[in-house]
């Protein structure tokens, strides 16, 4: 199994130089639930050289409607452990690092996450509280692709220090819902996860498409909208 064969169709689409660039990159996937499952799988199949999977959760029954890395056989097991096994089984070109932790806003947790070098963050968390802490890991050299889903609606944007507003500025007045679990359908999770993953690739290639722009996806009427973020 060689990279040239595994990624032959990728190379025909975007070229050998971009493929090599992906092989040299590392991405932190924060949360390997619904969005994270889709994002991680696309990034592995694209050929990203290293993924760091951060999640403290275990697989349970309500996850199975949308978290495409998991099956009933995985119930009760740590998500990062199962995800690493499933992703490693795709091919051997991506190094998978597991970080089974819940990110908290304290020096110990932030230091533990920062010990891993990465080019950017795929924000697949499901609460703004967690996302605001995650954003604190960001340096000026890195990018942060945020994604979120609810019902049949989703959104994606790229955050970069000194170029865009911070996530905290965009959502300063938003509170996490107290009525959980929240409704979400599998199709929007996979759709937004795939688009989020591709924006990660765009960033790794130095050509982000969603700086100061929010992509909004509404599956109810198949509307895709780009909203400028002032």
TrEMBL record:
One Pfam family linked to the record: ThiF
Gene3D superfamilies, per database record: NAD(P)-binding Rossmann-like Domain
Single GO molecular function: tRNA threonylcarbamoyladenosine dehydratase
InterPro entries: ThiF/MoeB/HesA (IPR045886), ThiF_NAD_FAD-bd (IPR000594), Ubiquitin-activating_enz (IPR035985)
Every THIF-type NAD/FAD binding fold domain range: 7-228
GO biological process: cyclic threonylcarbamoyladenosine biosynthetic process
Record protein name field: ThiF family protein
